[in-house]
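Morning F.,

Quick status update on the modeling queue. The single chain you submitted on Monday has been processed. Sequence for confirmation:
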Amino acid sequence: MKRQSAPRWLVGLCCVLSAVSVVLALVLGNVILTRRQAASVTPPASQAPTPHSAPVQPDPEPDSPPPAEGESKPAFHTIGSALLYCIQNDQLEYDVTHTISVENATVIDLTGTQITSLPQLTAALDEQTWAFTADLILDDQGRATAVCLTDRVLRPKIGISWESDDQDLTSYKKDILRNGGTPVELPQITDEASAVEALSQVDGVWLTGGGDVDPALYGEEIDGSYHIDPVRDTSDYHLAQQAIRLDVPLLAICRGEQVLNVALGGGLIQDINDYLEENDLSSPSETGVYHKNSDMPYHDIHQIDPDSKWLSDIVGGTTLTNAATYHHQAIDPDRIAPGLTAVAWTDDGIIEAVEYQANRFALGVQFHPERDALGDTTEVDVDQDICNQFFRSLITVAAEN
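Structure tokens below.
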């Protein structure tokens, strides 16, 4: 994989020098900038962002309290390792849902690509061949004074699992594009060989949501399952199985997580409400957790394993607020497939995430981070940065291929 990046010390130095020159030109030398104002903050090594990490805000100096409400931010506020998407009408779109004015910004190239102007940067982003990251230096009005290109990575190809011949994957493709990947619609998979062939054309896979999995695939009769599609079951089953065998980075969402468990030898709860009642477990009215209720399309996840390989890092802790949900089936806790590790649960005990930790990246989640990745779809305030971190994590690992 082609990759060009600059040392962080050089990034900080060049960005600082650029920002200083811009401000000095604006104020005609009437402002003397202190070292603390001009410093570009680099996170410690243990927290250093990946090429596709969420924005990193510099911590204030010990003797520099944060501005009070209503006050402007200090000069040279820095957004570190921002993932750039496009420039339209002097507005730079970055980190999927964020925008900033770059009308008077200077472009500093530290990647060796000789992109030193906004028109050149606009053209490079429009090509969508490379994913660029940059440190953004902001003035006290929140406008970018400098865009310091720090890294570029060839966009990895992310295969989106086949759903049907008349599928519309437009929103899924946007999720992949804005997070630094190139979306690829995978064909219908009919057997192991076609799965291997499809996977050879991509660097990572997104196994998407959908209807119920045929209970026959995990040795049961139908008892609460519906909307079964044997053709799609076959396609997803082989795709998941071979992605794990070949160690292709994999993100499996909702049905995708369930298929992953079944493909590796596990089983499912065919209907959650029946399961809770039959096992004398807390009902939705007691826990406030509704897994499939159009009037309550979100729930919180209060139990995330801090030792999980990926999930706790993605969400930034051991809880997740406002996880989008719409499912009536789940992984059977008594039939977790060999190799999978459960790493998240709702208060009623339903498994919300699993990891195949032997691979480079193989994460299955029962909820839907894609629902609000491009913006809130309901009146519920959802954290878009966390939603997109699921896709960015997949793409970051896939880019290493």
